[in-house]
Amino acid sequence: MEPNILDLRQERCPMALLLAKRHTKGLSVGEQTQILVSDSNSMKDITRFLHNHLFSLTCEEMNGYYRMQVIKEPS
């Protein structure tokens, strides 16, 4: 199975948030994805959105970017 990764390291808000919303909207319950972002403001905005829309999230700071592990939770 191919990993589900959305690389937004070249994007800034509001485009990064919009693309993250579109990407996570298509996830099924239990499905997971990784979102990569380099902008701390984008990371905060995406985190806020995910917490408000039934996703569990872990975030890890890497070398110059953030890796967000996202899982769609049941409603």
TrEMBL record:
Record bears the keyword Nucleotide-binding: no
Gene3D superfamilies per UniProt: TusA-like domain
InterPro entries, A to Z: TusA-like (IPR001455), TusA-like_sf (IPR036868)
A single GO molecular function term of this UniProt record: transferase activity
Domain called UPF0033: residue spans: 5-71
Pfam families tied to this protein: TusA (PF01206)
Alphabetic keyword roster: Transferase
Protein name: Sulfurtransferase TusA family protein
Organism: Vibrio ouci
